[in-house]
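Lab meeting, item 3. Inverse folding demo.
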């Protein structure tokens, strides 16, 4: 059985590049979710008039547990900053999860657990939302990191995140 969850944790290039490496992930698509504009473009989303979040749609099979997807998500971005991830600033970069209602309790419990830990010094601001319409991003955004490794954003921002992910989650990485 294939399940789907949507993660917004800053630039979708970063999120997509990590989840493409996980065992049990069968597909990842960048896109937009959570706003009011139908079929938004990247430019419209960046202008912050759509209400959409840049997300990665992650389809995964039963070999991968939701808890593992959540551990990865909360390790690859800062869930305590409102409308920003590093130098990426704007509502489209907010921390958000869009999931089926059946997964919401597990997600909320996970967030409560990490809030009680000393993992983050500030409160977690990650939105937990029901799945709404997903609009797939333009083709040039797909597999962006792998297709543009020499791009300065990829080198400076994405590569260190991938390295951190690989160091912390080696057992979850597909060969």
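The presenter then showed the designed sequence:
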């Amino acid at each position: 059985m294939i399940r789907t969850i949507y993660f917004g944790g800053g630039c979708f290039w970063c999120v997509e590049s990590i989840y493409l490496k996980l065992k049990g992930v069968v597909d990842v698509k960048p896109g937009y979710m959570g706003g009011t504009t139908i079929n938004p473009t990247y430019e419209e989303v960046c202008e912050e008039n759509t209400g959409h979040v840049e997300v990665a749609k992650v389809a995964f099979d039963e070999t991968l547990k939701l808890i593992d997807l959540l551990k990865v998500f909360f390790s690859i971005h800062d869930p305590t900053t409102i409308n920003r991830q590093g130098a990426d600033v704007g509502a489209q970069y907010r921390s958000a999860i869009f999931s089926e209602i059946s997964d919401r309790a597990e997600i909320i419990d996970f967030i409560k657990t990490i809030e009680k830990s000393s993992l983050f010094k500030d409160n977690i601001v990650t939105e937990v939302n029901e799945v709404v319409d997903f609009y797939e991003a333009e083709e040039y955004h797909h597999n962006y990191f792998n297709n543009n490794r020499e791009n300065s954003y990829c080198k400076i921002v994405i590569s260190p995140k991938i390295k951190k992910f690989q160091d912390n989650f080696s057992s979850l990485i597909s060969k």
